[in-house]
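User: I'm new to structure prediction. If I give you an amino acid sequence, what do you actually give back? Let's try with this one:
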Amino acid sequence: MAFRFKDLEVWKLSKDFARDIYSVTSTFPEEERYALVSQLRRAAVSVMSNIAEGAGRQYRKEFVHFLYLARGSLNETVSQLELSFEFGYIDKETLETIEQSAERINRMLWKLSKSLAPSTSENGQR
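Assistant: Good question. You get back a string of structure tokens that encode the predicted 3D arrangement of the chain. For your 126 residues, that looks like this:
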């Protein structure tokens, strides 16, 4: 059985994003290990996991739902990175680099979800 999610560029970038989060958080203070580090890592992994889970669903509507969940996890990760920057755990350059990656993934998730969703008629009905 082929896992089609592995062919999706957005999944590949999300996997790289999660690896980047793991790398960045490895330098956080020990007291954050079970707090911010854990939450950041889970949110970042959730992005790629939701893409994969959605791709494995039978119906497009389900896939779109999981793409929306992936976008939520991506936003959660960026929000926590902002806090990490304010606490001095990451520098501005690291924050900006990761945010650029997140913005690219966000755009790709949006475009993919729109390509899978049924088109909307002029009166807003689907």
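You can read the tokens as a compact description of the fold. Here is one thing that stands out. The longest helix spans residues 60-86.
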